[in-house]
Amino acid sequence: xxxxxxxxxxxxxxxxxxxxxxxxxxxxxxxxxxxxxxxxxxxxxxxxxxxxxxxxxxxxxxxxxxxxxxxxxxxxxxxxxxxxxxxxxxxxxxxxxxxxxxxxxxxxxxxxxxxxxxxxxxxxxxxxxxxxxxxxxxxxxxxxxxxxxxxxxxxxxxxxxxxxxxxxxxxxxxxxxxxxxxxxxxxxxxxxxxxxxxxxxxxxxxxxxxxxxxxxxxxxxxxxxxxxxxxxxxxxxxxxxxxxxxxxxxxxxxxxxxxxxxxxxxxxxxxxxxxxxxxxxxxxxxxxxxxxxxxxxxxxxxxxxxxxxxxxxxxxxxxxxxxxxxxxxxxxxxxx
Length: 336
What we know:
Helix content is 38%, strand content 22%. The protein has 336 residues and is an alpha/beta fold.
């Protein structure tokens, strides 16, 4: 009998939670704003309440006796064995924190729910979700890149999640593109995340709007106030031919392509699955990224290069976090 689990994806902007059935995928899902300013303890209270609510909802639809546990995808360095989360870059005030134990204790004490809990890096969870249920299902080796508040990555090698000896493998967002550049994130200069994270994309757009007449559609969408520009405004304006928005996405895609080229050169991975909220811009990013990927790699490395969109959309993280509960520690399903 298929089991079910709760998958949770902790983002810097929103927390997503879902009831995931092993056979059917997501059967119930919602999100709420992340209370990032509450610190670790307040955050755990929010997380425990959300998990408890989804357990109740899941139990009404599915057999409680087949409940497999709670999987949590979290930003930052994760020791999945010990359930420790270290210095998440988009959650201020966190150091090295025992997230699994704190959440388990809060669930039992405040909500009477005793359940196995697995903690995984959020991008790793998204990669796992795409490998099991989504865009990476047909690839033996690939890298998942998530474009959102930050830029994350997860690596699948031989149909298995590769974490690295310290759990930090795949952190493409901290790959340095311009070590002398002005952009700094989490104290590191010139990283991909500092160049194409959500806030930086907005800043880049604002910097391009020095002449409002050059971008009439984008200015219209943001109500003539550049400070209100959002990635969705940029996506819509570009699709309608706005020159500033088109130039912005060309730059974002090119920066991403350089990062992917470094992965190709280092690991000989040639398949990339791109997800996250920013990736909703689709070919506006993918096309310049693939062009730059070819320009930045040797001809001998071009065979098999492919960039595909994540199929699970914003559900990749919750699907992967839940899937970890179904089959922790064994190879992923494959159609091969």
